[in-house]
């Protein structure tokens, strides 16, 4: 499987125009997921934000200051952002889907993760192998000082996660 996190940002001085442009690009991405028969539960809009954007006013390459000595700021517009996360379960279609998604007008491909749908099965097997290896190591270490291992006192596990689904 491949999990893609796609960012759409549109900036315009009119908030309704910025939102409309953002919605149009997100709609293109969602249409693309339907064209590729990606199940609705594998498509999520995770993040939505609206921010007012400013920049420092300049004249002849120099900053302009107001009467209080503060940098003068100019309103650039409203930045409307949405993040769409897509889980593509047919990895053989990744290149085609990715090429098409780049044509939608998105702002950024935030992340692309390649995963396995058998993660639980692999983790269970790895856990079992790790415990056997730990027991073998403990037995060898104890034998080196003429002792044997006893009952386990504590067992901990760290499982990293990055998936949005």
Q: Considering DSSP H and I runs of 4 or more, what fraction of the residues is helical?
A: 25-40%
Estimate the mean pLDDT confidence.
Answer: 90
The main sheet orders its strands as 2-5-1-6
Query: What coarse outline follows from CA principal-axis ratios?
Result: elongated
Instruction: Give me the secondary-structure category.
Output: alpha+beta
- Please provide the count of β strands: 6
Kindly, what is the distance between the CA atoms of the first and last residues, rounded to a whole number of angstroms? 12 Å
Strand content: 25-35%
Quickly count the helices. 3
Which consecutive residue ranges, at least 5 long each, have pLDDT under 50? none
Helix-strand topology string:
EHEEEEHEH
Major β-sheet profile = 4 strands, antiparallel
Oligomer: single chain
Radius of gyration: 26 Å
Provide a quick synopsis of the model:
The protein is an alpha+beta fold and 165 residues long.
What key phrases describe this protein's structure?
165 residues, alpha+beta, four-stranded antiparallel sheet, two-stranded antiparallel ribbon, 6 strands
Spell out the blueprint of helices and strands.
Elements: E1 2-12, H1 15-35, E2 43-56, E3 58-59, E4 62-63, E5 73-88, H2 94-101, E6 108-114, H3 119-144
Antiparallel strand pairs: 1-5, 1-6, 2-5, 3-4
Task: Give a written overview of the molecule.
The protein is α+β, with helices and mostly antiparallel strands. Helix content is 33%, strand content 32%. The protein is built from three helices and six strands, in the order βαββββαβα. It has helices at residues 15-35, 94-101, 119-144, and strands at residues 2-12, 43-56, 58-59, 62-63, 73-88, 108-114. The strands form two sheets. The protein has a four-stranded antiparallel beta sheet. Strands 3-4 form a two-stranded antiparallel ribbon. A hairpin with a 2-residue loop joins β3 and β4 (62-63). It is elongated. The relative contact order is 0.22.
């Amino acid at each position: 499987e491949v999990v893609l996190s796609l960012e759409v940002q549109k900036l315009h001085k009119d908030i309704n125009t910025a939102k409309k442009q953002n919605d149009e690009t997100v709609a293109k991405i969602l249409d693309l997921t339907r064209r590729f028969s990606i199940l609705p539960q594998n498509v999520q809009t995770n993040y939505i934000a609206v921010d007012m954007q400013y920049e420092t006013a300049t004249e002849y390459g120099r900053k302009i200051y107001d009467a209080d000595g503060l940098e003068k700021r100019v309103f650039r517009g409203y930045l409307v952002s949405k993040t769409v996360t897509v889980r593509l379960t047919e990895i053989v279609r990744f290149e085609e889907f990715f090429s098409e998604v780049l044509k939608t007008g998105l702002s950024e491909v935030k992340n692309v993760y390649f995963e396995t749908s058998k993660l639980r099965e692999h983790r269970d097997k790895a856990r079992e192998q790790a415990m056997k290896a730990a027991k073998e190591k403990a037995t060898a270490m104890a034998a080196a000082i003429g002792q044997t291992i006893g009952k386990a006192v504590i067992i901990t596990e760290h499982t990293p996660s990055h998936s949005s689904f």
